[in-house]
Specification:
The structure holds three protein chains of three kinds.
Chain A (H helix, E strand, L loop, with lengths): L2 H25 L7 H10 L5 H36 L11 H16 L2 H7 L4 H23 L5 H24 L3 H11 L8 H20 L1 H7 L3 H6 L4 H23 L5 H13 L4 H23 L10 H19 L7
Chain B lengths: L5 E13 L5 E13 L3 E6 L5 H8 L7 E6 L2 E2 L5 H5 L2 E4 L11 H7 L13 H13 L15 H15 L3 E5 L7 H17 L3 E5 L3 H7 L2 E6 L2 E5 L1 H6 L12 E4 L4 E4 L6 E5 L2 H13 L3 E4 L6 E7 L2 E8 L2 E5 L2 H13 L1
Helix pairs in contact in B: 3-5, 4-5
Chain C lengths: L1 H16 L14 E3 L8 E6 L2 E7 L9 E8 L12 E5 L4 E3 L2 H9 L6 E4 L8 H8 L4 E2 L8 H7 L3 E4 L5 H11 L4 E3 L8 H5 L1 H9 L2 H22 L7 E4 L2 E2 L2 E4 L5 H8 L3 E2 L10 E4 H7 L5 E3 L7 H7 L7 H5 L1 E4 L15 H4 L1 H12 L13 E2 L2
Parallel strand pairs in C: 4-5, 6-7, 6-9, 7-8, 9-10, 11-14, 11-16, 16-17
Antiparallel strand pairs in C: 1-2, 2-3, 3-4, 12-13, 13-15, 17-18
Helix pairs in contact in C: 7-8, 8-14
Classes of the chains: A mainly alpha, B alpha/beta, C alpha/beta.
Chain lengths: 344, 340, 381
Amino acid sequence: MTIKKQIIFKWLILVIALIGLFITDIILGSVNIPFKEVIKILFTGQSDHSEYFTIIYQFRIPKAITALFAGFALSVSGLQMQTIFKNPLAGPYVLGISAGASLGVAILVMGISSFAVVSQFGVLGNWTIVLAAWLGSGLILFLILAISTRVKDIMTILILGIMFGSATAAIVNILQYFSNESMLKAFIIWTMGSLGGVSLAQLKVLIPGVMVGLFITFLLIKILNAMLVGENYAKSMGLNVQLSRFLVFFSTSLLAGSITAFCGPIGFIGIAVPHVARILFKTANHKTLLPGTMIIGGIVLLFSDIVSQLPGQEKILPINSITALIGIPVIIWIIIKNRKLAAV
Amino acid sequence: MEKPDNILSIENLKIGYSSIKNTDNVLFGNIHLTGCDGELIALVGKNGVGKSTLLRNIAGLQNPLSGYVRFYDKTVGEYNRSDFAKMVSFVSTEIINVNNLKVIDLVSLGRFPHTNWFGKLKSEDIIQSAKALQMVGMDILREKNINEISDGERQRVMIARTLAQNTKFIILDEPTAFLDLPNKYEIVHLLNRLSKEESKTILFSTHDLNIAIQEADKIWLMIDNEIFQGAPEDLILNEKFNKLFENSNLHFDKIKGDFRLKRKHKEKIGLFGEGASYNWTKKALERLNFTVEKGNELITNIKVESEENSFKWTLKSNNKTQNFKSIYELSLFLKKQTKF
Amino acid sequence: MKLKLTGIIFLFILFSCSNSKKVDSNQSDNQKESVILKYAKGFKIDKIDNYKLITVLNPWSGADNVEYQYLLVDKDEVLPDYANEYMVIRTPIEKVVCLSTTHVAFIDILNKTESIVGVSGTDFTNNKEVRENIENKLVFDVGFDSNLNYELIVGMKPDLVITYGIGGEIAGYNQRLKDLGINAVMNAEYLEDHPLGKLEWIKFIAAFYNMEDEANIYFDSIEKEYNTLLNITKNLTNKPEVLIGLPYKDSWYVPGGKSFLAKMVEDAGGEYLWNENDSRESQPFNTESIFAKATEAEIWIHTGNSNNKNDILKVDERFKNFKPFNESLIYNNNLRMNQFGGNDYWETGLVQPNIVLKDMIKIFHPDLLKDHELVYYKQIN
């Protein structure tokens, strides 16, 4: 097969896998809905069992869409972080985004949310948690951006991001220490990540957020390629380093921050998937890596979601455990294979 | 006398690092330098004196503490990023380590300031990249990953990248550092050709003084707290070169045109012979700390003669005669003697 | 998982320092009489001579073969020679620290609220007298779980600290208090799965006040009423299906089929949707499966913190597609709350299971108990 045919074949397989897994994620679930019913509901919009209809349209389709976009967003933001920091172990959360989000949620669930506030303001709704997560990660992003204009070396920013992450984790620890069981449990469940808690209405906010982030990243392809040779060389070739950093951090926080706000932190996808894309396409060119990473991210997260459903069982596993079980072996394999451990 | 047309001028530059406490760490001050169209300039100086910092200041990668770097009629700060990148390119000693990056792709990155927002390579870009690779003699390796080639080859690829960038000014920090001797000469010779044929102004720093003297049109000599500029020969004749070696055992012999270790010569020895065999025997004897006196029969002396396809050395000392088939044998013997 | 491990570790520690010796029941000069407990499985009271030996069994979730024994000796009595093998508590106690509002409720029934000097979390209690005392700085917050304010407790010099804990860590607190010279006992009424079993712990508390008779009278009267109510419901045929709780994101923790809440639903003449489940603990289910299973639920109770249907929607918008949300009767157990969010259902509700049962019967079968007005529950609209 010629090289060109090989490439087309690769893409074809990926797209088919993506579509296939998307459909499978809708067909399989905790409740056993017969395949015929699913088809009927999807294509005719009607069903004899109204609860099946509700499940498909209110639960499974939003969840599959969430998994898809979360896969896109997390893997692409991981790719950007690995390029800009020239570090193969960087991921979407190195800037402290998930730590900031968890701080926001922790303060809401364990700090402010004493019974007093709850009984006054009513129920701790879903949107409140999303908002709290957003504000938390936004705060961290603001700090990072403020610092990145003053700091020359990109490595310093990496270390600062990690330090911010640790600092917020310490504060969260304090909040946990002073909480009772139910608050603690609610918070811990949030940290396990969940794709199924996003309703259609919330998707109307999530999807545009992710799309804007992906669009910005698309515009950054040339800049990301230039960053491969390091910021100094990129600058000598005419790159506006400050602006580029800003755009990369902004799009990353838009992508990873949106997902974390709605789904909680979901790990390992951002670190592992870009490497899989690099191995599959054998290129460093972001023109290929960007869409490649996106599709593989969608595939991996859809697959993880299907597995976490434990199809047929009423119980579910937290999504983070599955992504860890899939992601960690990949990362280990990458490290062992690349004994020279090149930058990216 | 015609005033030189300086398209690059460095005026009263002070380079260094400013710290937060507002105390500037001045590396070098009072720098006045110029460069002309189509010139190959070598920046020479001791380690740590500030060559890299100066080059980075000129390339716009670092800001000076005070003073200006002027290209044509504008200072560095007055150019917009893109125009500046089309005018000045830079090669450092930084090692690029990326997986899956092909040589040709790395070189094509040099077209960055010329391509559109998406980075699409048009036919002009492809031609320039290919030409650049050819110029450094690396086109056979174009499809290889940069992690699979040697350091020297990678250095040449980085230079090809600046050639693809196609700028009037090229600034290189120690471009000969990783190269073997033939390649060192080749690269500098290439730079020389470029300066003449494409009328580029090329500035590079190096420790290879011999090559600099041979190929450069101009030398910027950085010593402790002074900078001198001039043709290499000027700096030799006015002894400025020797300031480099003030605290060492080396000195530049302006008559012989090379570097010699200051030696304490001990004994005198006579030498008879002609041509290359005479010269190289003399060099060996001087290495052994002898002072050579041509044609002196009265002291211990050596006669070198050609014999069939090789040479033979005859040592006469205290009426004793000895023959040697090689300089090595001769020097072993002499070393043993002088021990007593 | 972590609880089990902690439990095992503490088991080992305790084995070395806990009172393991039992009074030899065959000793002829000891008169032993066991108090009869009808429903409670978590404790025993043995009367030996003039003393009371209380044994608490497996006082935390997952404990196995764990026993704690406390020897209650009246102030005027002489200590028996075997006293140093047990934790000795002199009765009646006069100053007590309660780590749960349920303890407050028990003590309130005995009319000994003035003996409470410390509680865990001053926000939670609904008890008027205690709230007043908190205002007047006569009752203090001693913290809870891992950050009990030991200094404060020691300063109060209580005669007794009544503790409760979900996992094995409770053993740690008790030991710590003991080391500081404070008597601490474990109260595990929450582990009982029968509402009357829970109530029966009033006898445990009463023993410390020498008020066993009052406790017995109270218990018997409540038991009688509860059983009368059971007679009404046990033969009912039209039992409505009952759904309990609210999800968090897409996990819905559903009470086990053998849990106390499930039992109360059945006692009230309802049909708990998961009554075939064997577990006493809550199980996490996928919200999807709840949606599938609970379509026929006629009654939905215990909807978190919600006060109206909008609140439920705030938790998850998809409930608007949920049949019970639209067609069923929704009742929440948060009618009696103090301004800080403390729910009396968990306080006096415990000592009035008959009232709670009446509430539930009225909800499930509105045609019965026409004169009863809901005490702990309110309808969610």
